[in-house]
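Sample entry copied in:
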Amino acid sequence: MKTIKRRSFLTNVAITSALGVAATLPTEANTKKKTFIHHVYFWLKNPSSEADRNKLIEGLTALSKVPTIRFHHIGLPASTNRSVIERSYSVSWMLFFDNLEEEEVYQKHPIHLKFVEDYSHLWEKVIVYDSEQV
């Protein structure tokens, strides 16, 4: 049986550990996956109508079933009040996707197309802010 000296053993352990860590470090291939955020603000035609707001929220809840959506948030204007805060919208809709391609699938998905068809009569204005992770 071959005897391994302590120094050789420790060197081999260090090299093996370093290789294991290196295998988990980001590579060019896996760093191209950048989270994509799609944030939509809706201004209702009848902003004082609770029924219209609830109907839009109902539609957004159904829309959240598109399988490429990783996380969704339906929101109403917060009570914060500073000069830089926009509070004139009725409902916000924020979505997280794994990447731009997944968001593009969402845009063409039958659930999304049906949402636009069934609920677009409720809003007078929509603004979208899309962003990709740095």
